[in-house]
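Late entry, written up from scratch paper. The run itself happened at the end of the previous shift, but nothing got recorded in the book at the time, so transcribing now.
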Amino acid sequence: MIVVSACLAGKKCRYDGSAKPDDEVLRLVRDGKAVCACPEAMSGLRIPRPPAEIRGGDGFSVLRGEADVYNKEGKCVTQEFLNGARRFLACVQQNGAREVWLKAKSPSCGVEKIYDGTFKGMLRDGCGVTCALLIKHGIKVVEIH
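Output as recorded:
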């Protein structure tokens, strides 16, 4: 079983209320080989919501308490992102998944690059909060663009 970011499975849970469906993810879910979940929705954040970015590091920095997640309105939403990451990890573990497919560039799910915290569309190396927690627990992550 694979767990996939819900937005990749066509669920309208992204910050702007949209989805980013991926044909392969849709097929896996349809065939019962994958389940979908969204850490940001699992955290209780509303849909739609202001976009959020990590300031001062990446997901690993957030886990260590060295960086925070802020939304575009300037509100710190670090705790929500941590709560969502923990709930997502619990879903992965409950489903016995050893692999997770995550949405690129997200402050939760980004694997290789995330937005830099300035809300200017600039990317930097690093992963999101949920991705970092999954890696820390030995879960294989795959980035889907």
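The chain has a mean pLDDT of 98.
(Scratch paper discarded after transcription.)
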